[in-house]
Amino acid sequence: MNKLYVVGIGPGAYEKMTIEAANALNNSDVIIGYTVYVDLVKEHFSGKEFLTTPMKKEVDRCVMAFEEAMKGKTVSMICSGDAGVYGMSGLMYEIGVKYPEVELEIIPGVTAATGGAAVLGAPLIHDFCLISLSDLLTPWEKIEARLLNAAKADFVICLYNPSSKKRHDYLEKACDLMLQHQSPETVCGIVGNIGRDGEHMQVMTLKELRDTKVDMFTTVFIGNSQTMNIQGKMVTPRGYKNV
To answer: Over the range 1-11, which residues count as b (16 or more CB within 10 Å of their CB) and which as e?
Structure first.
């Protein structure tokens, strides 16, 4: 059977890629992905055939991967972070129905939530949720409802895709929703360019976060009512001292 890997390459740095992911790419004849992600791995996997598509060509990219696998090649479709967290694995399974001769194997990777959490300290030690602020595929009304309910339930909240040129005020809108249920002093953090050149982090309050400028390469962490700032690090206690 023809082989097609869907590989989470992690946040960017080769050192943050799993051994399993690196092995899959080494075993592949063709590596396919969004142009930015292919550029992150090219230097480490020389001799491979690389194929790319721009953003918003996800379906075309998936079809391309299956068509290459049908030629008898071993193929890797790469995603940043984890292929199953806002990645391509779901779409690959949907399109794969038309290619029963191709075997899919999903290779997990370090997603922005866990990669960014390590930079900030330990913000995800208790219950947390991931919410994307991109309304390209999800109506803003649904995103708003998820934000409100997550804040009301006192989750630590990790925000993906917090801003773009068209959505420059979405983080501000999200913080206003958070402030309906959370204190302005809630400990928050941001990490930009996780695992890549220019990586940076900052711990701040929810009130300060509201007026902070971020971009699509920033991951935002909003603490729960117990999250603390410990010597500049964002830490959410699990409660072990109380057991």
So the answer is: ebbbbbbbbbb
For every residue of the chain, which 3-state class applies, written as one string? CEEEEEEECECCCHHHCCHHHHHHHHCCCEEEEEHHHHHHHHHHCCCCEEEEECCCCHHHHHHHHHHHHHCCCCEEEEECECCCCCCCHHHHHHHHCCCCCEEEEEECCCCHHHHHHHHHEECCCCCEEEEECCCCCCCHHHHHHHHHHHHHCCCEEEEECCCCCCCCCHHHHHHHHHCCCCCCCCEEEEEECCCCCCCEEEEEEHHHHHCCCCCCCEEEEECCCCCEEECCEEECCCCHHHC
Percent of the chain's residues with pLDDT above 70: 99
Residue 236 in tokens? 């959410």
Q: Would you say residue 1 has pLDDT above 90?
A: no
Query: Comparing C-alpha atoms, which of 103, 228, 224 is closest to residue 158?
Result: 224
Summarised one tens digit per residue, pLDDT across range 118-162 is 999 999 999 999 999 999 889 999 999 999 999 999 999 999 999
Distance CA 118, CA 102 (A): 36
Averaged pLDDT of the chain? 94
Residue 135 makes CB contacts below 8 A (sequence gap 6+) with 143, 167, 170
Contact 189, 230 (CB under 8 A): no
